[in-house]
Specification:
This protein is of the alpha/beta class and 196 residues long. It has one domain (2-195): Rossmann fold. It has helices at 11-22, 44-54, 77-98, 122-138, 173-185; strands at 2-6, 26-31, 37-38, 57-62, 102-109, 145-151, 192-195. It has a seven-stranded parallel sheet with strand order 3-2-1-4-5-6-7, with helices on both faces. The model has no long low-confidence stretch (mean pLDDT 98). It binds NADP nicotinamide-adenine-dinucleotide phosphate. NADP nicotinamide-adenine-dinucleotide phosphate (NAP) binds at residues 6-13, 31-34, 39-42, 63-66, 87, 109, 111, 151, 153-154, 157.
C-alpha cells in the first residue's frame, strides 16, 4: 500500500515507519522538519499543500499531536486551545481534507489519558477523549475505515516523563506500531486499539 505517515520522525512515528516499510509498504513521510513532505498539522493550509504534493494514498496514519502538560489551575485559555488545536482539530483536519485523497483508511493517535487520569493531564485527557469520540462517530459516515491507536507510556519515553507515570507499566513503542498495522491492513472501523 501507499501510506502517508504524519509525525514519522518521532518516537512513535519512527517505529511505525520501520514496521510498515518492513512489511513492504511504500511510505511517504511528513512532519514539520526532516521528512519527505513538510507539514504543520495545526495549519489547514499546510495540510492542503501536503495532500496536493502527495496525491492519492491508500492510508493516512497520524503519529503527531501535542498537548500542554500543566496543573489545571495554571492552564490559560490559550493553553487549552493549543491542546485542542494540536491534537484534535489537527487530526480531524487530516481526515476532513483526506476524504478526497485517502482511499482506504485513517489511523489517528490518542493515548492512555483518555481512560486513566494523571495530575497535569487534563488537556491530554480532553484531547484524547475527543479524538476517540470523533473516530467512533466518523466511522458511521465515512466510506474509508477510521481507527485510533491509544497507547500507554512507551518504554522509550519513560525517562522523559520522570515519575509522572509512576505505577504505569510502559510498553515498547513497537507494540503501538502493531496497532497501526492492525488498523491499516485489517478490516475494522470505528475501533480504538488500546495498547498496554
Ligand atoms: N511517547 C509516549 O510515551 C506516548 C504514549 C502514548 C501516546 N503518545 C502520543 O503519541 C503521539 C506521538 O508521540 P511521540 O512521543 O512519538 O512524540 P515525538 O517523539 O515528539 O514525535 C512527534 C512527531 O510529530 C511531529 N510533529 C509534531 N508537531 C507537529 C505538527 N504541528 N505538524 C506536523 N508534525 C508534527 C514531529 O516532527 P516535527 O517536530 O519535525 O514536526 C515528530 O515527527 C503524541 O500525540 C503523544 O501524545 C505518546
Amino acid at each position: 500500500m501507499r501510506i502517508l505517515l504524519v509525525g514519522a520522525t518521532g518516537t512513535l512515528g519512527g517505529s511505525v515507519l520501520e514496521v510498515l516499510r518492513g512489511r513492504g509498504h511504500d511510505v511517504v513521510t511528513a512532519s514539520r522538519k526532516g521528512s519527505d513532505v513538510p507539514v504543520d498539522i495545526t495549519q489547514a493550509g499546510s495540510i492542503q499543500e501536503m495532500y496536493e504534493q502527495v496525491g492519492t494514498v491508500d492510508a493516512l496514519a497520524s503519529c503527531a499531536g501535542s498537548v500542554p502538560w500543566l496543573p489545571f489551575s495554571e492552564l490559560s485559555r490559550q493553553d487549552v486551545l493549543d491542546g485542542i488545536g494540536g491534537k484534535v482539530l489537527s487530526q480531524v483536519e487530516l481526515v476532513r481534507q483526506g476524504l478526497a485523497r485517502v482511499t482506504g483508511s485513517f489511523t489517528l493517535i490518542t493515548g492512555v489519558l483518555a481512560r486513566d487520569q494523571l495530575r497535569t493531564g487534563t488537556v491530554a485527557a480532553l484531547a484524547n477523549g475527543a479524538v476517540e469520540a470523533f473516530v467512533r462517530a466518523a466511522a458511521i459516515e465515512l466510506t474509508q475505515r477510521i481507527n485510533a491507536v491509544s497507547p500507554t507510556i512507551f518504554t522509550e519515553s519513560a525517562d522523559h516523563y520522570g515519575d509522572l507515570f509512576a505505577g504505569f507499566e510502559p510498553v515498547p513503542v513497537r507494540q503501538a506500531a502493531g496497532g497501526y498495522v492492525r488498523s491499516i491492513e485489517g478490516h475494522q472501523t470505528g475501533r480504538i486499539y488500546e495498547i498496554g
